[in-house]
Design brief:
mainly alpha; 5 helices; 2 strands; globular
């Protein structure tokens, strides 16, 4: 992922994905998906990008409240920056195994 995302093709693909997400927002707001009814772990990263500390704190609080609202939800802070799956792959694998095991 890290090697491919910063190539011209990777950047073009990211732009396509962002346009698709933006186009889907009106329908998402009109018909949001149902919350999961299965065990769920929400991983929140603890390292904010420089200058984004306030937004980051608000995002983590929202993630915590979301996990608390689920019938079998759990919130966990993770020592990582934005790409937790790249920085802490074993932790992500362990939590996934816990959910499906």
């Amino acid at each position: 992922m890290l090697a491919e995302d910063f190539t011209p093709a990777g950047i073009a693909r990211t732009r396509q994905e962002i346009r698709a997400v933006a186009a889907a927002i009106p329908e998402f707001r009109t018909r949001p998906p149902r919350p999961p009814s299965c065990p769920t772990i929400v991983l929140s990263v603890t390292r904010a990008a420089r200058g984004r500390e306030r937004q980051h704190a608000a995002n983590r609080e929202h993630q915590r409240r979301y996990a608390d609202s689920l019938p079998d939800g759990r919130h966990e802070d993770v020592l990582s920056g934005h790409l937790v799956q790249a920085e802490q792959p074993q932790l992500v694998a362990d939590r996934t195994a816990r959910l499906i095991g």
